Amino acid sequence: MTSNPSNVMALTSNTSNKKETVAIFGTGDFGRALAYKMIQSGYAVVFGSRQAQISSLIPKGAEVLSHTEAAQKAAIIIIAIPRQHYNFLLPLAEVLHGKVLVDVSNNLKLNQYPQSNAEYLAELIPGAKVVKAFNTVSAWALQSGTLDASRQVFVCGDDKKAKQMVMDIVRALGLTPLDQGSLLAAQEIENYPLQLFPMWKFPILLSLGLTAFFFFYCLIRDVIYPYVNEKKDVSFFIAISIANRICPTMALILLALVYLPGVLAAIIQLYRGTKYSRFPDWLDKWMLCRKQLGLVALAFAFLHVLYTLIIPIRSYVRWRINSRVISQVNPLDNTSAWLSDSYLALGILGFFLFVLLGITSLPSVSNSVNWREFRFVQSKLGYLTLILCTAHTLVYGGKWFLYASSYRWCLPSVYMLSLIVPCIVLVVKFVLVFPCLDKPLTRIRQGWERNPQYSEHIPHIQLYLEGEQKT
Amino acid sequence: MTSNPSNVMALTSNTSNKKETVAIFGTGDFGRALAYKMIQSGYAVVFGSRQAQISSLIPKGAEVLSHTEAAQKAAIIIIAIPRQHYNFLLPLAEVLHGKVLVDVSNNLKLNQYPQSNAEYLAELIPGAKVVKAFNTVSAWALQSGTLDASRQVFVCGDDKKAKQMVMDIVRALGLTPLDQGSLLAAQEIENYPLQLFPMWKFPILLSLGLTAFFFFYCLIRDVIYPYVNEKKDVSFFIAISIANRICPTMALILLALVYLPGVLAAIIQLYRGTKYSRFPDWLDKWMLCRKQLGLVALAFAFLHVLYTLIIPIRSYVRWRINSRVISQVNPLDNTSAWLSDSYLALGILGFFLFVLLGITSLPSVSNSVNWREFRFVQSKLGYLTLILCTAHTLVYGGKWFLYASSYRWCLPSVYMLSLIVPCIVLVVKFVLVFPCLDKPLTRIRQGWERNPQYSEHIPHIQLYLEGEQKT
Amino acid sequence: MTSNPSNVMALTSNTSNKKETVAIFGTGDFGRALAYKMIQSGYAVVFGSRQAQISSLIPKGAEVLSHTEAAQKAAIIIIAIPRQHYNFLLPLAEVLHGKVLVDVSNNLKLNQYPQSNAEYLAELIPGAKVVKAFNTVSAWALQSGTLDASRQVFVCGDDKKAKQMVMDIVRALGLTPLDQGSLLAAQEIENYPLQLFPMWKFPILLSLGLTAFFFFYCLIRDVIYPYVNEKKDVSFFIAISIANRICPTMALILLALVYLPGVLAAIIQLYRGTKYSRFPDWLDKWMLCRKQLGLVALAFAFLHVLYTLIIPIRSYVRWRINSRVISQVNPLDNTSAWLSDSYLALGILGFFLFVLLGITSLPSVSNSVNWREFRFVQSKLGYLTLILCTAHTLVYGGKWFLYASSYRWCLPSVYMLSLIVPCIVLVVKFVLVFPCLDKPLTRIRQGWERNPQYSEHIPHIQLYLEGEQKT
Questions:
Q1: Given C17, C141, C196, which is nearest A376 (Cβ)?
Q2: Least C-beta-crowded within 10 Å: which of A212, A363, C186, C406?
Q3: How many CB pairs under 8 A join A and C?
Q4: Does the distance separating the beta carbons of C139 and A463 come in below 8 Å?
Q5: What 8-state DSSP symbol labels residue C380?
Q6: Mind telling me which residue stretches traverse the membrane in this protein (chains A, B, C) (predicted)?
C-alpha cells in the first residue's frame, strides 16, 4: 500500500498501463478457460503450443506462439498439460530458468503417483520456481462465472515471491487464494478435488451400520414376531412405523456420540493429570468428526419429526381410530394426557434446539460468532438438547420398562436400547460437573500438570474441549 | 510482503506513520458516509466543496477545502456527485492530471445513459485514471457498520496500479474488492445495484404462469364441476385442497425442468458428435437458471408439506372423518395400508433429500465443498430426489388412471398432468445411462469429436453437465 | 503486484527464498499453536524464553533463544504472554526499538483494565510499533485447522506499515484480517471475544419477559379459572395448549416490533421535517436489533407450527374427538369450513414468507444480494408477512370478540392482546403510504429540509429506513 502522494506520482509512468503477460502451455479446455478469464481480468495471454494453427477455439485476444517464444514473453507460465507429457518441457529448461511455473494438474485417483505432479515438475526443471494452484477450480466454473462450488484456490510453493505473484493472479480473477505452505503440500492439494466428503465417511458408515442393525432388530420384534405368534401380517409397518422407530433411536444415539468423546477426554485428562499428552488416535478422529455426527443426528431427527407428523394421515391410523371409537369411550385420563403432552413438548423443544445447533454450524453463521459464543451454543445448548431429547424418550417410554410385553423373544424394545448411550453420557457429565472433579479438570486444562513426567512431545497439541482458555 | 528484516528497517522511517490522504468531491450523504468510515480506518480525508461553510454535517476530522486545493492534497479523489454535474470538473482537468478518480455514482434506471458514468468521466478528464468502485455499497451500511447486504465492492478500471490502490482502500474499510477488469465493465457494475433478482425472473414468471393455469384447471374440475353436476358448494376447497394440489404438481414439474436441459444437452451433443458447438441460446439460459428453478421447486415442496400436515386439523376433514366413522367400519385393508404408507414414506424421503439439496445450494455451504462433492450432491442426489418424488406421486395415484371418475369433463386430474415431464426426463435419462450411449457421450465430453468440421468458434465455451472433466 | 517481467527477474535473486523470521515471546499454548501454524505456512519461528530447556513441547523447526537474541533475529515479535508480565519487556526496550510488537492477549472480563493491553504495551515500549491482532483466534482452532468459529482476525495499530505486515501474516495463515483502524480500537477488539451475543441481549430479554407475562396470564385464564369455576383440572394444558398460545402471540408481537421503529422514525422525520437530526437513543438501538427481533419471532413461529402440527397426535385431542363423535354429527357448515381453511392457509403462507425472510438473513445469502434486493425482501416481503400473520390471527379469532365467554374474569383472551401492536403498525404504515404523507417523506429522505435550523451535528449520521437513496 502506497502511503504518500509522491510515491503515487511515480506510478503514473507509462509502464503502469502495460498489461502483465501470462503464458499458458496447453490449449485444452482448462487452459482456454483460464485464458478467457485472465483476458477478462486484464492480463495479456500467450499460448505455447506445438501447432500454431489450432486457433479457432482460442479465446479472442490471446496469442498462440511456440513454447519457447511464449515462455520468453512471460514471467509466469501456467502448465495446463497432463503430467505424462511434462518431459516435453526438458528441452525448454534453459528458457524456463527463473520463471514461475504454475502446475494446475489433477490426477484421476487419490495418490496416483508416489510423487505429486508439482514436485515432479520441480524435479524436472530445477531452475524454475514451481507453484501449485488452480487445480480445485473447474473449467466450467471459470467460464460460466457461476462459481457455485468452491472459490478457494489452494496455493503452495517453495518460493515465496513466486507464490505471492500467483496469489495476486488468483485474487484478480475473483477467487480466494489459500496459502498451504511449501511444495510438500502439493500431494494433499492434488488429492483434494478427488475427495468425496472425507470427514463424512465415518459418521455415514456408522449410521448406515447402526440403521441396518436396528432395522433387522425391529423387523424381528415388530413384524416377524406378530406373524409367528399371532399370524398377523403387519409388513406395511416397514414403510413408516419401523422407520419412525429407527430415526429417533439413531438421532438420540448419534447425538450422544457427539458428546461422548468430550467426556472420555475429560476422564483421560483427569486420570493422566495433564493435557500435554496425546489422546489415542481413535479419540482424535472421533473428536474431529463430531460436527458431522451431529448433523447426521439432526437429519435423523428431522425425518423423525416428518414421520411423526404424518401419523394422523396414515390410513392404518385412521382405521384404528375409527374402529376404536366405536368400541369404547373412556373418560379422559389426566395422567396420560400429561404424559402425552409432556413428551411431545419435550420433543418439540429438543428438536427446536437441535435445529438451532444445525443453523449455527452453517459456515457463514459459525464464521460470524466469536469463540465464546460458538462454545456456548455447541456445548451448553448442545447438552440441553441432549437432555431434552433423552427426557422426551424417557417420558414417551414411561412405564413400559415394567411390562413383560415389551420383551418379545427377550428382545427389549428399540427405544430402550436407544437410551443406553445418552444416559451414560449424561450421568458421566453430571458427575464431572461436581466441584471435586471440575476444579482439577479446569486446572489441568489451564496447563497445570499433576505428574509433569507424563507429558510427551505432541506435534499436533491437543487442546480440545470447551473449557479451553487462552493465555 | 517484506521478506527480510533490513527491508523492514527501511519502513521505520518517520514517513510510515503519515496518514494517506483521500479527497472526496461532494458532501452528500454518500460522500460523508465514506469519509466517516475512512477516517475510522486511519485515512486523512479532505472534502472538495464549492462552499467551505457547510461543515456542520461533515464528519469530525475531515477538512473542507476548495476543489483545487483538495485535489492537490491527495492522489485519490472520490467523485461523490451526480453524473449531471460532472462537467464542473472540466476546469480542474490540469490539477486532476495523473490522479486516480473514483467514480461511485449510480443511475436511477438500468442503462439510463448509452455510456457508463465512469467512461463518461474518463472521457471528460482524459489525463486522470478513472476507477469505478463503491457503487454497490449503501451509505447507511457504511455508517451503521451492519453490512447485512453485500460487502462486495466491484472495482474496474483501465489502470492496474490505480485499481490496486482503490482495492487497498476497499480492503482497509473491511469490504471485499472484486476486480471486474477494464472500464468496459463499468456499465454492468452500474446496472448491478438496480437489478432485482435477475436470475430469478424466468423461474418465477414460469411458476406464476403454471400456477395460474393449474389453479383454473383445478377450479373447473374440483369446484365448478361438482357445483354444476351435483349442486354441491365446495368453494372452500380453494383455500387448501386446491392449493395442496397445485403445490406438489408445481414442485414435481419444476424439479423435472431442472434436469430436462441437461438431458437435452446430452442429446444435442450425441447428435452433433462434439462438445465444441454452441447450444441454442434458450438452452444456455435455461441451464444457468437451474439452481433458481430448483429452489422455487423446493419452496412449492415445502408448502405442500405444510398443507399436507395440517390436513387433520381442518374442520372439513374432521367432519368427514366423524361422519364416516358412524356409517361403517371396514376391516383394515392391508394393500391400501401398504400403499398409503409407501407414498407417505417416499414423499418424506424425497422431501428430505430436497431439503439437503437446498442446504447445499446456500452460498457458504456450496463454497466449502469441492467440485466432485458438489456434482455428487446436485446430480446424483438430485436425480434420486426426482425419482423419489415421482414414485411418491405414482404410488399416491395408484389405480386412478383406470377409473372413469378421474376424467371429469374429459379433463384428467392434475396429478396425472404433473407426471408427464418427470417421467419423460427419467425415461430419457435412463436410456442415456446405457453403455451404448453413455460411452460416446463421455468421450465427446472429454473432447473427442465425431465430425471435427462441426465445431465453430465459441467465445463462451460450453462445458456444461456433470460429466465434465478437467485436463 | 509486479507488472513487468523485468521486475520479476529482480525477485529471482537468492534472497527471495529466505524465510521471513517471526519471534514469539512466550511458550504457552497460544504461542506454540501460532508457531506451529506459522512454520506450516513457511515462516521461520524463534521463541524468546527465559529458560531454553523447556523445548519438548515446542513445535519442530522452531528455535528457542533468549528474549534479546530472538528479538534481534526478527522484525515482528509476537507477545504471547499475559499482560501482568509485560513489564519484563522494559529491559529489552532498546532491542525492541523500531520492531513490530503484536499484542495477542485477551482479558478475563469485559473492560478489566481502564487501558487496553495493547495501549499499555505501546506505553511501556514507546519505540516499538504495537499492533493488536490474533486475540479472536483460539489456539485449538489454529492447530486443528477446523476453524469452525470466526476466521476473522481484527487488526489495529497506529503504524500503517506495521499493520500491513501483520495482516500479510494473517492472510498467509489462511485467516481474514479486518483492519479496525488505530490502536484506540484495541479496547473494543479485546472485549470482542468476551462478548456473548451482545446484539441478542435485548431481543432475548424482551421475549423472556413477555413470555413470562403471557404464561401467567394464560395460566390464570385457562387453568386456574376453570379449576375455580368448574373444578376441572386441566393443568396438562401447560405443556402444549398454553405454549401454543404463547408462541404465536410472541411471534406476531415481535414481528410487529420489527416494523414499529421504522414507522416511528418516519413519523419523527415527518414531524421534524429533516433527516439530519438524530433519533432518540432508544430508537437507534431498537433499529439496530431489528434483525435479531425478527429471528426470535421466527423461532416462536417455528415452535407454533410444530405445536400446531402435533395437535392431532395428542391423547387429549384424540379423546375429545372420540367423545364428540359419538354424541352428534352435524352437517358440514360451509362458513366454518371456509374460516378454518382460510386461517390455516394464511398461516401457512405467512410462515413460508417468514422462513424466506429468515433464510435471506443468513450471512452468506444476504451477502450475495444487492441492496435493492435486500430492501425488497426485508421491507416488501416483511410487511406482507406481517399482513398475512395478522390476517391469520384475525380470521382464527373470527367472532370471538363478541362472545362474553372470551372475557374470563374480565381478561380478554391472549390472542386479542397479540393483535394490538400488529394492527397499530399496519394502520400507521397504511396511513404513511398515502401520497400526501409519502411524498414529503421521500423528499425528506432525499435530503430536503423543511426547517434547516433543526439539523444538528450528527457524528454517526442516521440514514435508516428502506426509502434511503444514494446520491
A1: C196
A2: A212
A3: 225
A4: yes
A5: I
A6: 204-228, 248-271, 292-313, 342-360, 381-402, 414-437
Task: From C167, C194, C221, give the residue that closes a domain.
Answer: C194
Chain B residues close to A143, C-beta within 8 Å: 460-461, 463
Counting residues of chain C whose pLDDT is more than 90, the rounded percentage is: 11
Judge if C329 and C180 occupy the same domain: no
For chain B, 471 residues long, the average pLDDT of each consecutive 10-residue run is 34 46 86 84 84 67 86 90 86 89 86 87 90 84 61 85 87 79 85 81 91 90 84 79 87 90 88 78 86 90 88 69 55 71 85 89 78 81 90 78 66 79 89 85 74 47 37 30
- E strands, C182-283, in order: none
Same structural domain for residues A386 and A244?
Answer: yes
- Judge whether A467 lies within some domain: no
The CA distances from residue A154 to A176, A179, A193, C43, C201, in Å, are 8, 6, 11, 18, 39
- Residues A220, B436: Cα–Cα separation, whole Å: 44
| CB nearest to B303's CB, from C20, C311, C352 | C352
- At what angle are helices A315-327 and B334-360 packed, to 10 degrees? 130
Residues A146 and A66 in one domain: yes
More confident residue, C466 or B400: B400
Assigned domain for C93 exists = yes
Q: Are residues A209 and A263 in the same domain?
A: yes
User: Which stretches of A127-242 are DSSP H helices?
Assistant: 139-144, 160-172, 186-191, 201-218, 225-230
Cβ-based contacts under 8 A for chains A and B: 224
Neighbours of chain C (3+ CB pairs under 8 A): A, B
Decide if B348 and A307 are in contact by the 8 Å CB cutoff: yes
Asked which of A458-462, B447-451, C39-43, C197-201 is least confident by mean pLDDT, the reply is A458-462
**Looking at chain C, which residue has its C-alpha nearest residue B198?**
C373
The domain in which residue B101 lies consists of 20-194
CATH number, domain with residue A67: 3.40.50.720
Q: Using an 8 Å CB-CB cutoff, list chain A residues near C139.
A: 463, 468, 470
**For residue A14, what is the nearest residue in chain B, using CA coordinates?**
B159
Asked if C363 lies within 8 A of A366 by C-beta distance, the reply is no
Mark yes or no for CB contact C159/B17 under 8 Å. yes
Work out the minimum CA distance from B349 to partner chain C, whole angstroms. Answer: 19
Across residues C54-79, what is the average pLDDT?
Answer: 83
Residues C41 and C190 in one domain: yes
The last residue of a domain, from among B143, B177, B194: B194
Contacts of B174 in chain C (CB under 8 A): 178-180
Closest by Cβ to B236, choosing from C20, C334, C368: C334
C372 contacts on B by Cβ (under 8 Å): 193-196
Tell me, yes or no, whether A262 lies in a domain.
yes
Please count the CA atoms within 13 angstroms of the CA of A210 that sit on its side-chain side.
Answer: 24
User: Does residue B157 sit in the same domain as residue B244?
Assistant: no
- Chain C: closest CA distance from residue A428 (Å): 24
- The phi and psi torsions of B235 (rounded to 5 degrees) equal -60, -25
Q: Give dist(CA C144, CA B438) in Å, integer.
A: 43
pLDDT in tens, A84-136: 888 888 888 888 988 999 999 888 887 788 888 999 999 989 889 999 998 88
Nearest residue in C to B168, CA atom: C164
The residue among C233, C241, C316 with the most chain A CBs within 10 A of its CB, best to mutate, is C316
Q: Tell whether B302 and B350 lie within a shared domain.
A: yes
Q: How far apart, in Å, are the Cα atoms of B209 and each of B195, B214, B218?
A: 22, 9, 14
Looking at the structure of chain B, the number of domains it has is: 2
- Spatial neighbors of C208 by CB under 8 A, at least 6 apart, are none
**Same domain assignment for residues A375 and A345:** yes
Q: Which of C16, C305, C311 sits opposite B3 (nearest CB)?
A: C16
Classify residue A9: in a domain, yes or no: no
